[in-house]
Amino acid sequence: MQSINDNNARMSNLFKRLWSERNPRPCRRMSEANESNNCADLTSRTKRKPKINYVLLKESNLRKELEKDGISTQGDKAQMIRRHQEWITLWNANVDSSKAKSIESLRQELREWERIQSRASPKNAVSESWGVDNRQEYEELVGKARAGNKRKRG
């Protein structure tokens, strides 16, 4: 009888080990997902993040939100808001996705997005520089148009 109980216990332990390898337990905290490879990707087991009313949120509380998610807290409030909005978008898209990405890959996507945003020049700066560079050509075209209108009238 003892050997049957030993066999049952060994089989039970084997089953538990195989089950935990194929079905990793969900992480309870973001830090747990970062530190341990044994728990499943947090985003695949969590709910969507709600959108935040940033007008009512103090800068210190916004920094805490960013720190909680492991995101950079650099920059002014407007930059942090844009960064957090993009993080919420990435997070929720990942939760909805059938192929969830790791948290670190989401953070990498956010860093890449921010790098691209910092390189992009504002539209006003581009149009102003175009106006300066092409001012003479523009004035010639305006002069020709006005001369053409005078001929038609006169």
TrEMBL record:
PROSITE patterns: SAP. It comes from the Eukaryota. One of its GO terms (biological process) is protein monoubiquitination. Pfam families: SAP. InterPro entries: Rad18, SAP_dom. GO terms for cellular component: nucleus; Rad6-Rad18 complex. One of its GO terms (molecular function) is single-stranded DNA binding. Residues 54-88 form the SAP domain. This is Postreplication repair E3 ubiquitin-protein ligase rad18.
